Amino acid sequence: MGIGGNSPGSLLLIFLIAVVLFGTKKLRSLGEDLGAAVASFRKGLKEQDVTKDDAPQIDKKDDEHR
Fold first, then answer.
1. What DSSP designation does 3 have?
2. pTM for the full model?
3. What CA–CA distances, in Å, run from 41 to 8, 18, 34, 52?
4. 24-36 tens-digit pLDDT
């Protein structure tokens, strides 16, 4: 059994239908766009982690005295 309950034969058939409908150039550009989007998303997550680590830490004892 393959991904999500689909057999490898049915996945191959779906892939072949997609190639016939869209063509290899369109699928290649779609794959490149998807890869760029994932890379941009990962970069954004890394930048968010860096800014979260650089944030000043507030001591709870200081908050009680205010």
1. G
2. 0.52
3. 30, 26, 11, 17
4. 999 999 999 999 9
